[in-house]
Give the backbone structure.
Amino acid sequence: MGILIGLVLQSIAFWLLPQYLIGASIAVFTVVVAISYGFELYSKISGRGHYEIADAIASIIGGIIGIAVSFAIAFFS
């Protein structure tokens, strides 16, 4: 799931801000971290599901991979 989030958000950021590749990537990384940890925090607060920080870290790593793939496509094309 993290790869897809990173890929889609990075693509949208590049479409909206094509002249700011690095800034868009930093903003997308921040959003990926917020979404990934937000799901886990929601699980902890609501009691639904299970709270596990390893899931958030795995999702963030997947988001970084998605960001990198999208960045490589945009940068080298």
